[in-house]
Amino acid sequence: MKKHIYNDSKMSYLVIEPEIDITASLSMNMMKNNKIQCLLDMECRYIDNSLALYYSTQGMQSLKEYIEEYSISYNTAKQLYMDIVQAVLNGEEFFLNEDSYLMELEYIFWDKKNKNVKFCCVPELQGDFQENIKKLTESIIEQINHDDKSAAEFIYGIYGLITDGGFIIQDIKSYIKSFKPDAISHTLQSKQDNITENKDSGKYIYGCNDSKASGASSGDSVPETRAKPDKKNRYLLCIDKDSLPFRTDGKGSADIYLEDIVCITGENRAEASIGRSRDCNLVLPVCYISRHHAVFYIEDEKLYIEDVNSSNGTFINGERIPANVKILCNATDVISFAGILCRLSCQ
After folding, report:
1. Alpha-carbon distance 221 to 281, whole Å?
2. What are phi and psi of 141, to 5 degrees?
3. Where in the chain is the domain with CATH 2.60.200.20?
4. CB 213 within 8 A of CB 229
5. Closest CA to 101 of 6, 16, 26
6. Any bridge partners for residue 51, and if so which?
7. Which residues in 213-223 are b (16+ Cβ under 10 Å) and which e?
8. 291, HSE (Cβ side, Cα atoms, 13 Å)
9. How many whole angstroms separate alpha carbon 51 and alpha carbon 1?
10. Backbone angles phi, psi at 208, to 5 degrees
11. Contact, 286 vs 153, CB < 8 A?
12. How far is Cα 267 from Cα 225, in angstroms, rounded to an integer?
């Protein structure tokens, strides 16, 4: 399939030359005879007896060009994914398959007049929508304005949704509807934004004050024993509050001794899990943190960390560590869980 941009004296087009004959296909006829919301208008032309599809881009700018000129704000990111949902749902009414959408930045267009996004659908194209939207989201993450915390939380939440497992377009629609800027989730909106310890379960959790929210339910697995603090060698994890995508009670850091939250797994061995799942020892209820993100291990008075194949990664001093490998930590290391910064110290 050949793709290029064509401009004449009055009009601008994205031109696509299909590799197969699609003139008699149902989706082709649907696109020729209907104007479908959120899709680029298309007309057919024959050049040297070969079919070419002309998609009108007049008055529009490719998303690739747009983000080179403007940073992607929360409102722009939200509009993009709202229009993806709308384009797919509209296409279904006309028997268009979501796999036939081009999800690359240079073939998605920003409509300057209507302030929305339009997409290119190529009849009978055998793509992979789920893989393509994953790649698109990774491109957006690279360009997002990370100073806009709502934008960062929104896009990482989208990425977590589409990488945690199979998803359908309605999942994205529900996520957009439920997402609230400057709030992690509905469960946190009515709670104070601070850090508390649930002494009964040996867990720490962000954003919750009540034991029902931060503790284990009757069906949860709760460690019966906790590591005894070693006064000579205690590991302190200082979580940078400024790196959190929600308000906290003041600036600075939230300090947690790992020995206070670990589960003892053997003689001179203990571990503490990190993630957004309620059964983790340190709960970070942030959408771009994986359910089970990483694990700290204390073995023979040495500290290790392992990323458990998280979607958005675990970093030590700015370098992403490989998944499922125990990495020895050093005092003063800066550890990041998908953007949440933690400074390690040994006391």
Report:
1. 11
2. -60, -40
3. 187-346
4. no
5. 16
6. 46
7. bbbbeeeeeeb
8. 7
9. 11
10. -125, 140
11. yes
12. 13
Q: What one-letter code names the amino acid at 260?
A: D
Amino acid at position 43, single letter: E
Q: Write down the pLDDT at residue 251.
A: 73
Residues in the chain, total: 347
Sheet harboring 116-118: ordered strands across? 60-62, 109-111, 116-118
CA–CA gap between residue 156 and residue 288 (Å, rounded): 5
Q: Are 19 and 27 in contact (CB under 8 A)?
A: no
Q: What is the pLDDT of residue 142?
A: 82
| DSSP assignment letter at 114 | T
Q: Which residues of the chain have pLDDT under 70?
A: 9, 164-165, 182-233, 245-250, 287
| Sole residue written with tokens 């906790």 | 226
At which residue do the structure tokens 């939200």 appear?
78
Contact residues for 114 (Cβ-Cβ < 8 A; gap 6+)? none
Q: Which CATH class is domain 187-346?
A: mainly beta
CATH number given to 1-182: 1.10.510.10
Six token digits for residue 92 = 């279904």
What are residue 75's phi and psi, to 5 degrees? -65, -40
Q: Return residue ranges of the chain for CATH 1.10.510.10.
A: 1-182
What does the pLDDT look like over 253-265, one tens digit per residue? Answer: 888 999 989 999 9
CA geometry: angle at 164 spanning 96 and 169, to 5°? 25
Distances (CA, A) of 105 to 120, 137, 138, 154: 11, 10, 11, 19
Cα–Cα distance, 97 to 121 (Å, whole number): 9
| pTM score of the predicted model | 0.60
Axis-axis angle for helices 129-143, 74-93 (nearest 10): 160
Residue written as tokens 């409102």? 75
Q: Please tell me the predicted confidence (pLDDT) of residue 204.
A: 59
Helix axes 74-93, 169-178, angle to 10 degrees: 140
